[in-house]
Amino acid sequence: MTRATPTTVRPADLGALRDAVLDSAGTLGVTGAGTAAAWGGTLAPVDTVIDVGGLTGIITHNPGDMTVSVHAGTPLRELQSALADHGQQVSFDAARVDVGATVGGLVATADGGPAALVHGTLRDLVIGMTIVLADGTVARTGGHVIKNVTGYDLAKLMHGSYGTLGVVAEVVLRLHPVPKATATLAVDCTLDDAAAHAGRIFDRPLDPAAVEWYSTGSASGTLLVRMEGTVDALPRRVERLHSILGAAADSGAWDAHAAAVRGAPGQAVLRIGARPSRLAALVGSLPCATAAVGLGTGVATVALPADAVADAHAAVHAAGGTSVLRDRPDGFTGPAWGPPPSAIALLRSVKRTLDPDGRLGPGRLAPWLQEDPR
Amino acid sequence: MALDDAARAALARAVGTENVIDDPVGRRAYECDGLTGFRVVPDLVVLPRDAAAVAAAVRACAAHHVPFVARGAGTGLSGGALPVADGIVVSLARLKAVLDVDPVDRRATVRPGVTNLEITAAAAPHGLYYAPDPSSQQVCTIGGNVAENSGGAHCLKYGFTSNHVLAMEVVLPDGTVVTLGGDSAEQSGPDLRGVFLGSEGTLGIATSITVRLLRVPETVRTLLADFPSVEAASDVVSDIVAAGIVPAAVEMMDTLAIEAAEEAVHAGYTVGVPAALVVELDGPVEECDVQFAQVKEICDRHGCTRLHIAGSVDERAAIWRGRKAAFAAVGRISPDYFVQDGVVPRTRLAETLTRIRAMGEEAGLRVANVFHAGDGNLHPLVLYSAAAGETDRAEALSSGIAELCVEMGGALSGEHGIGTDKACSMPTMFGEVDLATMDRVRRAFDPDGICNPGKVLPTPRLCGERPGRYRPHPLEESGLIERL
Fold first, then answer.
1. Which of B188, B235, B250 to probe the A interface (max A CBs under 10 A)?
2. How far A349 CA sits from the closest chain B CA (Å)?
3. B223 phi and psi, to 5 degrees?
4. B191 and A157: CB-CB below 8 Å?
5. CATH number given to B98-215
6. What is d(CA A317, CA A286) in angstroms, rounded to the nearest whole number?
7. What is the pLDDT of residues B320-341, one digit of tens each?
8. Does pLDDT of B22 surpass 70?
9. Which residues between 206 and 225 in chain B have a beta carbon less than 8 angstroms from any beta carbon of chain A?
10. Which parts of the sequence belong to the FAD-binding PCMH-type domain (chain B) (predicted)?
């Protein structure tokens, strides 16, 4: 069957979003800023694209409670800039925030950055959500308080769903104070040496905020260790770290790190998760053009030749890890996901229950969510 | 319909006859959990000796349509482990192995019957610990913590169970065994692990749990401060937060709670003061020095009448003993009590406490307050005497307080769970559509409805045909959200 160009709708509020889902027939794709449009499985041709880019802005910000609710199409960097006036932040720093990624898109793709070492990902920072299901159901989960075990946490289902289970409409986030002082030490070294350094850091009570190694080509690279604290205390803590690493301060290097995570156009970028102690050897075994490796988080992002992707999925899986392809060269048709998780039947059951007609995000989790697995 | 012979035989085969309790006296020991007001004697109790036997027991339940309720130490306060009529209890008490402690990747893998504190004990030789610390941590099991997404005094800074569980081996309600989560936070696809955590035993049974371990902080500073009013103490909490300090814990107790705790454990609290705060900071020495000085200054600024700084490990332990004993200690000043667990936005703490006091006076009952002030999680203890016929009044007041928390923009439960206790109050916080959506997710895990049925979501059987009346959420009334 051939399809005409999909109809794009751009709702301006929650009601219009619900109506857009109800008034359309057939399959639906969801887009925000489009910064991860090529990530994961390729979206199959759809009848309607819902652009949530019109759902923007802060709904409520309670500085005293350190919570904020926003429309899902709000670019996170805009939110961060508004929160900074109050000395607050969402403690989340995925590389694509800098290029305009929306809060909803960051949730749907389960993205994360170096700050995950201490603060986790949006999975850990989202405290409430409003979602629209494929049948037009508008459901709320969680609330506006940090601590809350009332009912099932449906927001978790949206995290990493790539638009296949529902449309994220509103998100409530917990906030943290912006650190009064920040410092980064940088050491030029190989990945193996960086892993050894990281081991020494984690063996001591230094409380680093982020520990990452990145490389933009050669065998060597740079270890970055970020420290956060108070103006009065941080210098002495940095001295302690310096005595271990013998490194120089270089806070600007985080931009280079984020660029390595994003990869260059035309590259196949693979996101990898594994036990931290296995990650350096795993990444070292892959033919990486560039790499960014979270030595405490166990999360790495590497750029590979397109023909190495399938083997890389297999190598990660063999090491007990998980992998997903992010950007890739035009025309690439290799696998986006590694082998399915053991709970694949459960995942399909959840999909059937929330989206029985298979309307949302066809192809994004392919081949896992085959609607008809004959 | 009671359990038939075929189902009994299948369950005995699954776990071994010697691991089945079917005599009435033995079964009665499982009739309730920490919420003792609700009691149901199960038809059968099975105590599997290993994870394979748990899966076999669940498969037998699925084959014979027998409802089952998983149970750890039975310390839950919301009736989540209350047995169901004509169903069985699957006790995880014998799955007590610590399978692995990995000091390099800083994680431990344990069976569900291991207690919260046993994980920290196993990690301690490596300078590591398990962070979530419910007050019952000496006895409550990690399996129960997973079910309830348990918190504790230190979760303000360190997060809840959900933030600390990396992976679980789970027996789904049809008896299949899956792994949810994995070796890192980077997992492919929707976060099913996150949905399972805090699902109160309604989506399956975890038989192996891998948790993150944290490095023991370099230093810990703890102070106990008295204040002339609850309002003054609340202002201190707000100012600490406004100063950009994230304390490890901030706990508040009012006059009645202090009186009860002192009578029980003599921890050095000042009897008679309107409010006491416990503030704890931890982390690198340099940071604690700076921030602890700020906290002391904030306390002074708000009229602190006594400031006691723990000068030793023993003194810190005494302060915490007083705080953690407060619940049970209330039994010393009242024959009976109900515990609530609502959460309010921190900025509305003082207002909420004033309202609770007025509600208590109106009902002619005393309410003691001991709570996690840093995250707004209240634990009002409604004191009453069943012998004096005050039970119904106390129950109404207790529910009214939980619903007040929702009205304040908060939540019904911060850490104890909904279970049986608050299922009928769910419509005060969520609309019909929200609850129906949660029920759809439940059906995706448990299409036959045999896994801890009747908990969390309101049912006609538990709550009557109209399970509580719907009231617009305050955010809805103020136009901030709309119920479409």
1. B188
2. 5
3. -130, 155
4. yes
5. 3.30.465.10
6. 13
7. 999 988 878 888 889 999 999 9
8. yes
9. 215-218
10. 38-216
Q: How far is A253 from chain B (nearest CA, A)?
A: 24
Q: Is the dihedral of CA B473, B477, B479, B482 positive or negative?
A: positive
Q: Find chain B residues with C-beta within 8 A of A353's C-beta.
A: 440-441, 443-444
Reported confidence tier of residue B469, pLDDT bands at 50, 70, 90: very low
The domain spans of chain B are: 5-91, 98-215, 219-407, 423-477
Residue A1: per-residue pLDDT: 47
A vs B, Cβ pairs < 8 A, gives 296
- Tell me: pLDDT of B475 over 80: no
Mark yes or no for CB contact B441/A350 under 8 Å. yes
Cβ B159–A124 below 8 Å, yes or no? yes
Q: Does B242 sit within 8 Å of A207, measured CB to CB? A: no
Angle of the B51-64 helix axis to the B5-15 helix axis, nearest 10: 170
Distance CA A88, CA A178 (A): 5
Looking at domain B219-407, which of 3.40.109.10, 3.40.50.1980, 3.40.462.10, 3.40.50.1260 is its CATH number? 3.40.462.10
| pLDDT tens figures, A186-211 | 999 999 999 999 999 999 999 999 99
Distance CA A71, CA A93 (A): 19
Residues of chain A with pLDDT under 70: 1-3, 371-374
Residues B214, B118: Cα–Cα separation, whole Å:
15
Residue B442 forms contact with A (CB below 8 Å): yes
CATH 3.40.50.1000 fits B5-91, yes or no: no
* ipTM given for this complex: 0.97
**Candidates A69, A86, A149, partner chain B, best to mutate (most B CBs within 10 A):** A149
Domains of chain A: 56-177 (3.30.465.10), 181-325 (3.40.462.40)
> Residues near A225 by Cβ (< 8 Å), separated by ≥ 6?
A184, A185, A186, A187, A201, A208, A210, A211, A241, A245, A247
